[in-house]
Amino acid sequence: TPNSVSSTALPEKDAFMVSIDKDGRVFISLDNEKLKQTLIQSMNQSRGLGLGAAEIRNFVKSPSVGVPFTQLKSLLSLDPEAENYEAAIKAQAGIPCADSTGGELTLWVREALVAYSGKKLNLLIKSDNNTKYPSFKNVLNAFKQNDQNKFLLVTSPEDAPPGTALFATRQNQVDGKK
């Protein structure tokens, strides 16, 4: 991920992260298992995915998902203890979002917003340094289609440059803890 200097810590709760790898593949992850279950049950019903209880449990337990709806059932039906499980997870094609409407990612964002209704949902985008801009723009389009214009970019933390106000503030915080 790119480096940055920030005075804001990454939210640890109620986070919906969209990750983009160097090949432009898009993955989603959520931190709240209860709301993750609400999300997949709603998506299963509205999109007619045909997921059973075991597949829904696998979605809730999986760290991230990055396949089109047509491949979701087969991915979630894999046994996490199986030999080919790791290879299948690494071979995910990514969630389609390669157009101005945001593709299937738009629907994931919409359902996440519904699942988190009444709570603050932190939208995060994590991208590789080598990700091409069109892939990033497609993710932004999915957010815009859902009227979501505020999000956080996940970056690798870097210390503030010496002599800046942020550097002085951090030094004072460190000195105060000693």
Question: How would you explain this protein's 3D organization?
Answer:
With about 180 residues, the chain is an alpha/beta fold. The chain contains 7 helices and 6 strands. It has helices at about 35-45, 55-60, 70-75, 85-90, 105-115, 135-145, 165-175; strands at about 5, 15-20, 25-30, 120-125, 150-155, 155. The relative contact order is 0.21.
Describe the protein's topology.
Elements: E1 3-4, E2 15-20, E3 26-30, H1 33-47, H2 53-61, H3 69-76, H4 85-90, H5 103-115, E4 122-127, H6 133-145, E5 152-154, E6 156-157, H7 165-177
Parallel strand pairs: 1-6, 2-4, 4-5
Antiparallel strand pairs: 2-3
Helix pairs in contact: 1-2, 1-5, 5-6
